[in-house]
Amino acid sequence: MLPMSGVALLSRGDHGVDDNDILRVRLAYERVRDEYAAFANALRVLVEELCRANDLAIDAVTARAKDTTSLVDKFTQRHDYTSLDDVTDKCGVRVVTRYREAVDDVLDMLRDEFAVIEVVHHGGATPDSFGYSSDHVLIRIGERRLSFKEWRRYEGLVAEVQVRSILQHAWAAISHSLDYKSGVEVPDSARRRLFRVAALLETGDEIFDGYRNDVIAIRDEYRTGVDAEQWRDLPVDLDSVWAAWSKFPIREAVNAAEEAGFLRVPGVDQADPPVDYREQELPTLVRTAAAAGLTKVGDVADLFARVPSAKSVFDAMVRVCRDQNGDPPYAVASDLPVFLLIAERPDDQYLRNEAQPVSSRFLVAAASAGESARSS
Fold it and tell me: φ and ψ at 292, to 5 degrees?
């Protein structure tokens, strides 16, 4: 196991540490800093994986080994420090969450996955306290993980994990940039404005938490409606369309498009797609459906049901693309109703704008197919 400091207890007199003490701390830390840098990188990867595995709403995970100069400065300023071991943030990890409520989720995860030495809540203890709150957790690698060879090298090393919401992190970044660490340092003329900012940020965190809870409740309501076969009356939005996706005749629509000459989407069952399909493919369908005046999820389902009978539209789209020496579109399920709407309203530029980012070449082909069908 790597020694924690390699420095004996340092004697402090009334005048603090002398130059020899400072030199000994500097040299001792320089001997172990590379190991703390490796520890920091390993923890960053591990904490990211754990947050992802537990579906925690995080924005970023960063880590670093403390700079030697910063460590020596901190050691010099803290008169309660007597050895390098007293500096607990030689390895620092920061977890920034999207929501204040997610801070507690991350703290629970850290307690489950590591040997927690201490949890300290900074700031926000009183209404007039300076700054904005943040949670700092001192951890070691726990016994279970030490059974793995790659973690055994870090046995006994301590890391400080800071857990903050995005707005808490914004406060810390701005206040640090102004070099204010306590309320005493803030000019009286600026103090009131500073507390107002802290109050606004805290209110913002509460509103974001409420927004998140509202969205979760709506998604649960949609799932309940789908299970109760009431999905056709759900309002059209991204979550309702995703919740009802399994009720749409997706395979029939895709097969019809492929028979018309559309290219096959490789490796994806679009009737049971992965989660990222929701963010990548559905927004265009939802925007276009709303622009076309569709208000119920059942209306969107009916568009999919019409795809097989609209074979002439898709045949014409393929011909237009090939006449222009281009490939036909892929049979992306969520795009097929969009093409139908464009074909039915080929002169509606607003509708076509909402249909982007689908390739404009394919939208033009859909409009041309609609004009041909209208003139025939």
Answer: -85, 0
Token pair for 71 = 């460590």
Separation CA 121–CA 79 (nearest Å)? 22
Q: Over the chain, what is the mean pLDDT? A: 87
**Of the candidates 193, 123, 217, the residue with the CA atom closest to the CA atom of residue 165:** 123
| 6: confidence class by pLDDT, cuts 50, 70, 90 | very low
Report the distance separating Cα 281 and Cα 30, nearest Å: 51
User: Helix, strand, or coil here: 54?
Assistant: coil
Q: Cα–Cα distances in Å, from 69 out to 29, 83, 100, 206?
A: 10, 16, 33, 38
Between CA 171 and CA 295 the distance in angstroms is 41
| Per-residue pLDDT tens over the stretch 298-321 | 999 999 999 999 989 999 999 999
What is this structure's pTM? 0.71
Confidence category of residue 17, pLDDT binned at 50, 70, 90: low
Largest CA distance in the chain: 99
Q: In the numeric block, which tokens belong to residue 262?
A: 């559309």
Closest CA to 253 of 315, 337, 176: 337
Rounded Cα gap, residues 345 and 338, in angstroms? 11
Strands lying side by side in the sheet with 114-122: 58-65, 91-97, 159-165, 134-141, 114-122
- Cα angle vertex 156, ends 151, 157, to 5°? 80
CA dist., res. 38 & res. 2, Å (int) = 13
| 124 phi-psi bin (left φ>0, alpha ψ -120 to 50, beta other) | left
pLDDT tens digits, 148-163: 999 999 999 999 999 9
Tens digits of residue pLDDT in 160-190: 999 999 998 888 777 666 655 555 566 767 7
CA separation, residue 280 to residues 273, 277, 332, 358, 369 (Å): 11, 5, 11, 11, 26
d(CA 334, CA 315): 18
